[in-house]
Design brief:
The protein is α/β, with parallel strands linked by helices. The chain contains 17 helices and 14 strands. The strands form four sheets. The chain has a five-stranded parallel sheet with strand order 5-7-10-4-11, with helices on both faces. Strands 1-3-2-14 form a four-stranded mixed sheet, with helices on one face. Strands 6-9-8 form a three-stranded mixed sheet. α9 (about 285-295) packs parallel to α12 (about 340-350). The longest helix has 24 residues, at about 300-325. The chain is globular.
Length: about 450
């Protein structure tokens, strides 16, 4: 096994090892053009930020030239994904099934998880406080799960709160007290909160007076007062979560570094459905089954998981009982009964088509076919949609599928949309969100 601690020519070192018969492990960094040259020479090259175990050749695209990786050994590199052994026949690629789970127990967000892992290792090594951050992203992309894992890896208590409940400082102080986080001794006249992670979801809903108080707690001094008492938050990491970071005050955004979580691709969401199915059923669901659930639920993580655990699994359980007269099928038996046909038939009976369009979505398309270009206000009135967020969610999805287009005049059907009104056809390639930081593999 070789690691590359040099700041010289990594390619030459790599080529020099090819005559050896033993498996070679190199943690290096290289440009994409160098990776392609290795590909032409039949070398396996996986581009990722780091690896979790040995017997792989790993490279990372960089902005300038070929330089040594920061780690001195493969053990030092924070794992992103479990890697394959040198002699393994399974490829670490987009088609691997079941999908691989990263070190946070998640599927997706691998680059972000790798960066967080590095910062956690540094803070633990230096006994430093993990910095305050603001996790921003759409619902269901893993903000809460990521916060729990950060607390777990820091070996710190995690306090979970909702921004809408944070109307006064007393609420937060009470939460810390309920978790028994106040240290016995005061420090410089201040009550000290023990090492912990405070996660505030929907942070844009926090009350104004509480925000002003929290800004003091997050300042460099980490002190804030309430009802004549001073509190020290020097050991507390505040993790804010929001779907709309623009609604947070600029002072808050300057104290909590924004970290953006992207939407999942359809492939990643299939993996998430599989992961929850594995936990519930002790059975590996087929990829086609997971895709059917993910696509019918519009690639929405929370809806897809709820559909599996609260609808599909109970449905398959009752189907087994009705068919075989079994009183209590085991979870694995239920898992084997969940087929693509069972899932498709279940959703068809619910009026949800192959692309996840329900009666409301079809009504939108038929209305636009009859009326032509229509404003948002008139569409909401015609469809009986009273909440703008509900309309925007539907509007975003049918636009993503290419069924409608949006202009200053309003919404109108595309040529694809007009065809779709007459005959439903699969649009799976458009359902998932495009990956904003997809990893590249050259084989």
């Amino acid at each position: 096994m070789i690691t590359n601690p040099y700041r010289g020519n990594s390619e030459a070192l790599f080529e020099g090892r090819q005559a050896d018969s033993e498996p070679t492990t190199m943690v290096i960094s290289a440009t994409r053009s160098t990776c392609k040259r290795w590909q032409r020479r039949n070398h396996r090259v996986v581009v990722a930020a780091s690896i979790g175990r040995a017997d792989m050749v790993v490279a990372t695209p960089t902005q300038s030239g070929i330089v040594a990786a920061g780690a001195n050994s493969t053990a030092d590199a924070p794992p992103i994904r479990p890697a394959c052994a040198a002699g393994s026949t399974r490829r670490h690629d987009a088609n691997a099934w079941p999908p691989e789970v990263n070190s946070f127990g998640m599927i997706g967000q691998d680059s972000l998880v790798a960066s967080i892992e590095e910062l956690i290792r540094y803070c633990v090594s230096k006994q430093a406080r993990y910095p305050d951050v603001c996790l921003a992203g759409p619902p269901g992309v893993g903000k809460t799960s990521m916060s729990r894992m950060i607390a777990q890896k820091l070996q710190a208590e995690c306090v979970l709160l909702s921004g809408s409940d944070m109307t006064s400082a007393a609420r937060l102080i009470s939460a810390f007290a309920e978790h028994g986080l106040f240290e016995d001794e005061m420090h410089d006249g201040a009550y000290v909160v023990a090492r912990s992670v405070c996660f505030i979801d929907e942070a844009h809903s926090m009350g104004r007076s509480f925000v002003a108080w929290l800004l003091q707690a997050m300042d460099d001094v980490r002190l804030s007062s309430n009802e004549g008492k001073c509190y020290s938050f020097a050991n507390v990491t505040f993790i804010l979560a929001t779907t709309d970071p623009g609604r947070l005050p600029s002072a808050m955004r300057s104290r909590a570094e924004p970290v953006f979580l992207r939407d999942y691709t359809l492939r990643e969401l299939c993996g998430i459905v599989w992961l929850h199915g594995r936990k519930e059923l002790d059975h590996d669901l087929d990829r086609e089954v997971c895709e059917e659930i993910a696509a019918r639920m519009r690639a929405n993580p929370r809806r897809a998981v709820r559909s599996l655990t609260q609808a599909i699994i109970p449905h398959a359980y009752c189907q087994l009982q009705a068919r075989d007269g079994a009183f209590d099928p085991t979870p694995s038996e239920v898992g084997r009964a969940i087929t693509t046909n069972l899932v498709a038939n279940y959703f068809e009976k619910k009026g949800i088509d192959v692309n996840g369009l329900d009666d409301n979505a079809r009504s939108l398309l038929r209305y636009l076919e009859r009326q032509g270009v229509t404003s948002e206000v008139h569409l909401c009135q015609a469809l009986g949609i009273s909440t703008r967020s509900d309309f925007l969610s539907l509007d975003e999805y049918v636009t993503r599928l290419g069924l409608i287009s949006v202009s200053t005049r309003g919404r109108q059907l595309t040529s694809v949309g007009r065809r779709y009104v007459r005959q439903v056809f699969p649009l799976r390639a458009h359902i998932g969100h495009p990956s904003s930081n997809a990893e590249m593999e050259i084989v």
